[in-house]
Design goal:
The chain is an alpha/beta fold and 418 residues long. The protein has 15 helices and twelve strands. A seven-stranded mixed β-sheet has the order 9-8-7-6-10-11-12. A five-stranded mixed β-sheet has the order 1-2-4-3-5.
């Protein structure tokens, strides 16, 4: 039987938590068990009347994993393969991620198993609002704060905020993050995850003495995270030679015109017919002779056999859980530096925190201030992880997990067991 994403998430947790000796540090507290079980998992039937009069039946989920360090926080994804085990894993990684960058949130995640792109606009609104109605008492600005994820964005967050307002009878901008700026969203939120990935790449390149203006990169996944990562790398002078999406992949050894590609994808919806590149088999993107590889799609994309053939010197995990444990071990053995997901893609939740802060104060920041604050958080977090890794001669992933687990364990112990 294959491992679920949640199985893999727990496996990595136990692997890296061993050296912390939590049972000795906090005797009798059973923290290893407490920190690997979600506080609450909600699964429910969702029915939606389609525009043609037929009724669609599917499943909705929300997992609130840990709130020892602050309110639950995490995105909502609409995707055909969403299930409870995947949502648990994503919520698990989220509470570790907020701890790595040391912002006062816990971890949650939600989703609907649906081929969202096939729905009409009216069907999408009804589905999102019904999901929110069911969870109306489970979310809130001081309890559980949703955000965008795969196939959701500003529009869905506005719909969620509208339903919550109707249920509770008051206007609370901080009930979601990733909203349109017109109703309390933050400057820089849409591009924040990609921006954070690139801030981490800059720090790693400095340690590796890699000149980014002379470097090349390949980006797997050209959604919000991948496209913005590619754009910011392009602006730094990095040659982005290959990109992929769910439809296919393209390459151009001289470097793709990323702004033109983004404009093309906004119009056509896929990278594969972009005239500025030649077709490439999707998995062959991993084998492009580049300095930097950015997996920015879904979980478990890189397996052990793929990892054996990756030529990149640096891998920056824009996606959550893009590697199997076997792939992680292979890259470690090969000496390839990997910036782990719980650090690398934490820019999104960090700017979500900034948005939440602005909503609570009703005082809004400029794009320049958001960028400066994000850079400061990501650089500080990277240096803490890198210093831990150098001190203990371990991987960046192990160092990030240790820091996160130690912070959450301390908070859990201080709160008490009841």
């Amino acid at each position: 039987m294959s491992k679920t994403p949640f199985d893999i998430a727990k496996e990595l947790f136990f692997r890296y938590a061993k050296t912390l000796a939590l049972d000795k540090r906090y005797p009798g507290q059973n923290l290893m068990e407490r920190l690997t079980q979600p506080d609450r998992s909600v699964e429910f039937r969702l029915t939606l009347q389609l525009d043609n009069g037929r009724t669609m039946v599917t499943r909705g989920y929300r997992v609130q994993f840990n709130d020892d360090r602050g309110p639950y926080k995490g995105g909502i994804r609409f995707h055909p393969v969403v299930d409870l085990e995947e949502v648990k894993a994503l919520a698990f990684w989220m509470y570790l991620k907020t701890a790595v960058v040391n912002i006062p949130f816990g971890g949650a995640k939600g989703g609907i198993a649906v081929d969202y792109g096939r729905l009409t606009l009216a069907e999408k609104e009804r589905l999102t609002k019904k999901y929110t109605t069911i969870l109306g008492d489970e979310i809130g600005p001081e309890k559980d704060i949703p955000a965008p994820d795969v196939n959701t964005g500003e529009r869905e967050m506005a719909w969620i905020m509208d339903v919550w307002r109707m249920i509770h009878g008051r206007y609370e901008r901080g009930v979601v993050t990733g909203k349109p700026i017109a109703i309390g969203g933050s400057e820089g939120r849409r591009s924040a995850t990609g921006r954070g990935v690139v801030f981490c790449i800059e720090e790693a390149a400095r340690d590796l003495k890699m000149a980014l203006s002379q470097a090349s990169a390949a980006v797997q996944g050209f959604g919000n995270v991948g496209s913005h990562t590619a754009l910011f790398l392009h602006r730094l002078g990095v040659r982005v030679t290959a990109v992929s999406d769910v439809h296919g992949a393209i390459r151009n050894p001289k470097g793709l015109d990323i702004p033109a590609l983004m404009a093309h994808v906004a119009e056509s919806g896929k990278v594969s017919d972009f005239p500025g590149g030649e077709p490439l088999a999707r998995d062959d993107l991993f084998y492009e002779p580049v300095d930097i590889l950015v997996p920015a799609a879904l979980e478990n994309a890189i397996t052990g056999p793929i990892a054996e053939r990756i030529p990149a010197r640096l891998v920056a995990e824009g996606a959550n859980g893009p590697m199997t444990p076997e792939a992680i071990d292979v890259l470690n053995q090969r000496g390839i530096i990997v910036i782990p997901d719980i650090l690398c893609n934490a820019g999104g939740v960090t700017v979500s925190y900034f948005e939440w802060v602005q909503n609570r104060q009703e005082f809004y920041w400029t794009a320049e201030k958001v960028d400066d604050e994000l850079r400061a958080v990501m650089r500080r977090a990277y240096r803490e992880v890198a210093d831990e890794a150098a001190r203990d001669r371990c991987s960046l992933r192990e160092a990030a997990y240790r820091l996160a687990i130690a912070r959450v364990a301390d908070a859990a112990f201080r709160r008490g067991a009841q």
